[in-house]
What we know:
The protein is 76% helix and 0% strand. By secondary structure, it is an all-alpha fold. The protein has two domains: 1-110, no CATH class; 112-197, no CATH class. The mean pLDDT is 82.
Amino acid sequence: xxxxxxxxxxxxxxxxxxxxxxxxxxxxxxxxxxxxxxxxxxxxxxxxxxxxxxxxxxxxxxxxxxxxxxxxxxxxxxxxxxxxxxxxxxxxxxxxxxxxxxxxxxxxxxxxxxxxxxxxxxxxxxxxxxxxxxxxxxxxxxxxxxxxxxxxxxxxxxxxxxxxxxxxxxxxxxxxxxxxxxxxxxxxxxxxxxxxx
Length: 197
């Protein structure tokens, strides 16, 4: 779900990263804690989608984000539909979709270095407990950076297997794992060369 930053001049883009993170976290906590019914959860999804328009992002961006989470929504919704009820399936799936769209909007409209700077400031007081804020921030930065990289590896592996006429399945996991581990080794070597680890 990590989306690269898209520059813009909207109110959402110009908002300071700390304030934006606090507002988005409040919205996420409020949406998670509120006892939704079918109507309120639908309104919640509409509000989140409208924030994409407030951020002056093309509708295509919202469609792409929703398309990316199709399998999660399908699996979660189907399981809840079968084992609980259609109403619970709609409420839970829509709530999760809203939260993921909100998180995507945060990363689309905020530079990663700004988010990490906020995180570093929040972690700094923990230095009294022996926690290295720089190391934690760098670890989170590397983790967030790896997500789109691994997604790109997965896409490349799928395309290569489709080109060979192979069916997609568990075989995809092996080359994906090899490429991911190789990339992790290269990142580790680069960090070691710069004496960051």
